[in-house]
Amino acid sequence: VLPIGVSEVLQNGDDVAIIGVGPVLYQAIEAAKYFNNLSIKIINARYVKPLDREMLTRVAARYQLVITLEEGTVMGGLGSAVAEFFAACKAKNIELIRLGVPDYFIRHGSKDVLMREIGLDKEGIIKAIENSAAFPKMNKSSFLKKIL
């Protein structure tokens, strides 16, 4: 029996936190393998409502870069709920990137093609991390941690 409102850590990491729901988490696991110098925590939120507030509090205290992943719409979904939680608890210095279905019409096509077009595949997740404002600092500090 799954406890309601409790997330599950799929992979531990120190540099980036990815919080997602659903099969898109498999893409996150694959994307994490791409980075040699980054340690990426992957969390299966399991539920959008109720949110795992304890997990989000720990994430807010530890990570500068948090990415949410969902195969549903970003507006009103997990990403919005996490953003609202961070705002309510006055979390500072967190770059939140919300990946999901954007708020515009998506043309028809195969799931793989559509996921690629909206950045919910392995490459899109990698690009989101690399394009983040936090990436240059994290990449440098993680590299130094591993050689020292």
Rounded to an integer in angstroms, the radius of gyration calculated over CA atoms is: 15 Å
Structure class = alpha/beta
Shape: globular
- The spatial strand order of the largest sheet comes to 1-3-2-4-5
How many distinct beta strands? 5
Q: Ends: how far apart?
A: 43 Å
- Beta fraction: 15-25%
The percent of residues in helical segments reads 40-55%
Please summarize the sheet with the most strands: 5 strands, mixed
Q: What average pLDDT do the residues reach? A: 91
Task: Write a compact overview of the structure shown.
The longest helix has 13 residues, at 135-147. The chain contains 6 helices and 5 strands. With 148 residues, the protein is α/β, with parallel strands linked by helices.
Q: How would you explain this protein's 3D organization?
A:
With 148 residues, the chain is an alpha/beta fold. It is 41% helix and 20% strand. The protein contains six helices and five strands, in the order E-E-H-E-H-E-H-E-H-H-H. It has a five-stranded mixed sheet with strand order 1-3-2-4-5, with helices on both faces. The chain starts with 7 loop residues before the first strand and ends with a helix.
